[in-house]
Amino acid sequence: MTTVTVSDKGQVVIPASIRRNLGIKPGTELEFELEGTTIRVNVRHNVAQSDIDSGFLMFRAKPSGGKRRLADFDVAVEMAKARSK
């Protein structure tokens, strides 16, 4: 366990090994929660915004030879099929 000292402004330095292990970089947001006399710190990792094109052709429905049904596009069914292979 590492011990740090709180500055006059209430600041502490997070040890480098902990920052590396948790991916804490300048601008990373931390959430503080008080649990009795314990402070819990949670790292909030920003998730990059995705666009609709990033999922293009991830799942394809087999040609039905006629009208397509909504069931032809069931992602959960296709994922289960992929897992069972």
UniProtKB/TrEMBL annotation:
The keyword Magnesium does not apply. It comes from the Bacteria. Keywords: DNA-binding. The lineage of its organism: Bacteria, Pseudomonadati, Pseudomonadota, Betaproteobacteria, Burkholderiales. One of its GO terms (molecular function) is DNA binding. Residues 1-46 form the SpoVT-AbrB domain. This is AbrB/MazE/SpoVT family DNA-binding domain-containing protein. The keyword DNA-binding applies. InterPro entries: SpoVT-AbrB_dom, SpoVT-AbrB_sf. Gene3D superfamilies: 2.10.260.10. Coiled coil: none annotated.
